[in-house]
Design goal:
With 295 residues, the chain is of the alpha/beta class. Helices cover 24% and strands 29% of the residues.
Length: 295
């Protein structure tokens, strides 16, 4: 019988350090989350390094790792030891010249339940991800685990209702969004409140429209590793929302924290019975959604 209730966690951290230190830090925080009762635990996007996409620099490709190497070995052993599911976002080296922004979903026995490669790749000032990452080619997937059915998307994916919908239609109970998003310090006063509000609103909308839980794991801290730049101030504010968009847990803008909330599948079913958005979808009229523009 599937679990009717289970606890999920997102971990909000400052990751402005070298890979070895970030790995040790994240292992410690995952242990803490498990000790608090979390059964499915997500780290932030690109956990093992500072956010290197602030510049286009070929030296940064050295931060990537092949599949099933350092990150997988460490967190596979940890998941098996603790009996938890861990979402591990990492910089994947697929082969020479092909790199992805990816996430392992590691099951309670240490096996790989699934792999997700970020589908939407941004190219904005100091978020120069197109230089580094090939768009994902595995599609949108729901991953069955021993704790529940997990959908994992990554950061820029969070702005796309199609990604949330296609994942939810495969049975996802929770949409996890490992994230690295923040303010340009010089823009924060003028645009910061609206930017942060839009970020939360769009994901809460995914929760409502799909009747799913949504969990976003962001990083914190000013990452100013390039000379003569203001850097990026990551805004934290990680959160977990329920299937009506209600905030179940939310973090600060500037503290390392663990957020935990309970997934209740009976509640989810009740919400979908009363708000039957899936039932009333006009799939006969949606064909144009696959066009770039309707013109």
């Amino acid at each position: 019988m599937p679990n009717k209730k289970y606890k999920i966690a997102v971990i909000q951290l400052n990751l402005n350090d070298i890979a070895e230190n970030n790995l040790k830090k994240c292992i410690s925080w995952v242990r803490d989350a498990a000790n608090l009762g979390a059964e499915v635990i997500s780290l932030p996007e690109l956990y093992s390094s500072h956010y290197f996409c602030q510049s286009e620099d070929v030296d940064n490709f050295a931060l990537a790792e092949p599949l099933y190497s350092t990150s997988f070995i460490a967190f596979s052993a940890l998941a098996k030891e603790l009996g938890v599911v861990i979402i591990v976002p990492f910089f994947e080296k697929r082969m020479a010249g092909i790199y992805h922004n990816s996430a392992y979903i590691i099951d309670t026995d240490g096996s790989e339940a699934g792999l997700y490669r970020k589908m939407h790749i941004p190219d904005d000032p100091h978020f120069y991800e197109k230089f580094y990452f090939t768009p994902g080619d595995l599609g949108f997937k729901t991953i069955p685990t021993q704790k529940g059915k997990i959908g994992t998307l990554i950061c820029w994916d969070q702005w796309y209702p199609e990604a949330a919908r296609l994942t939810a239609l495969q049975g996802a109970e929770v949409l996890f969004y490992p994230t690295a998003i923040g303010w340009h310090p010089q823009e924060k006063e003028q645009y910061g409140e609206n930017q942060h509000g839009a970020w939360m609103s769009v994901m809460k909308g995914h929760a409502v429209a799909n009747g799913v839980y949504v969990a976003a794991a962001n990083r914190i801290g000013l990452e100013q590793y390039l000379p003569d730049t203001a850097g990026i101030q990551f805004w934290g504010s990680s959160f977990i929302a329920g299937p009506q968009g209600e905030i179940l847990a939310q973090a600060s803008h500037d503290k390392e924290e663990i957020l935990i909330a309970e997934v209740d599948l009976d509640l989810q079913e009740n919400v979908r019975q009363n708000w039957p958005f899936f039932r009333d979808r006009r799939i006969d009229a949606f064909g144009d959604i696959t066009k770039r523009a309707i013109d």
